[in-house]
Amino acid sequence: MDNFISFDRSLSDPLNSIEIYNPINKEIPDISTGGGNIIQIKGLIYPKDSIGRSFQQDWFIRFPWLEYSPSLDTVFWYPCRQFLSHGTKENVFKNIGFKNWKSAIEKRKGLCKHADSRVHLTAMANWREKELRESSQLEIATLVSVNELALRGNYDIDENTGHGFRNLFEYTLTKDPKLAEIYTQIPKNAHYLSPDIQNDVIDIMSEVVREEIIFEILDADVPWFTLLEDDTRDRNNIEHVSIGNSYVRKDKVFESLVNVATTLSSDAKTMANSTLEILRNNGLDSKRLLSQCYDGASVMSGGKGGVHTLIQEELHRKVPYVHCFNHRLHLVIMKLISEVPELKIFFDQCRMLHLFLNHVKVISIYTGTRIGRLLEQRWSGHLKITEAIYSNY
Fold first, then answer.
1. CB neighbours of 247 closer than 8 A, spacing ≥ 6?
2. pLDDT tens across 51-63, in order?
3. The whole model's pTM is what?
4. Mind listing the domains of the chain with CATH numbers?
């Protein structure tokens, strides 16, 4: 029998996300701390009191919010500990702990009495309100992120960025009276709308997605994967490295993004070291690395000092480099464009239009569609600027 189980409780599903721990070499935990998961001990020999009574493990099933403290031999009520105000008079199930085992489950006494008490119902209501508020914000952040809309965190420099997260939250308040009521009652410093909170939510979501991707890679049909990597510089002049893996699972080929990291430098040595470190940090053994796929830039493909060569040297084995087919196709398209006069003239005019619309005297008064700068190594830019011109001019 497992010695203890940690429950990540939610009001909508009391048994949601059960984590079962191996009892070997594990210290028995006490009650939850700092708003952590509910902890319920299993398989212990609970000490008996002077009349031979003790805590019973079955009470966890009857009272799913109960916590037992082995160090104190008492029980606490999780929602009362976490969600009652500091001024609440009753403190047995909140601070001191209950251990009158004889009357613990008698009608109108002990645990049964407390479960129907106003104090407990208040704590449950506070918990429900907190869950509703946080789940609403999480759903909004998910919607904004999936649709690639700006959340407007504190790292934004462009003042034209919209307040996507706040605008959607304010719209949700108009459609959810209960959430609106809660929002008006909580302190202004607890609205969970700050840029830091938004960034924390994104980090949590990305970690959940990343864990699922790593599981799929490790659960692949064959134990090897291909490394996919590309880098780009954002509008704030920060270098970002995107690292993905290609693998076969359930007879299908998948390509999944594992991580996006920032680097202080884009030289081959820094890129190679960062790549191997990211693989290690995500539990991906480099021994399973079958091949490497990058663009044709010398920093990645160089035969003497490129990233693929440095990774082979670090792993002391051959890990073949494959020039990305999309990048190769793009080179063909760029060559074709340069050989067709009409296409060359069109994209030359696109470049001049970009320079004109981004001139300091024009950008302040122009309110139309923004046109990005054409980069030969980014094939998607040519399609976007063509669509923008076709739709607007």
1. 216, 217, 220, 222, 224, 225, 226, 253, 254, 256
2. 999 999 889 888 8
3. 0.55
4. 4-116 (no CATH), 128-203 (no CATH), 220-323 (3.30.420.40), 338-392 (no CATH)
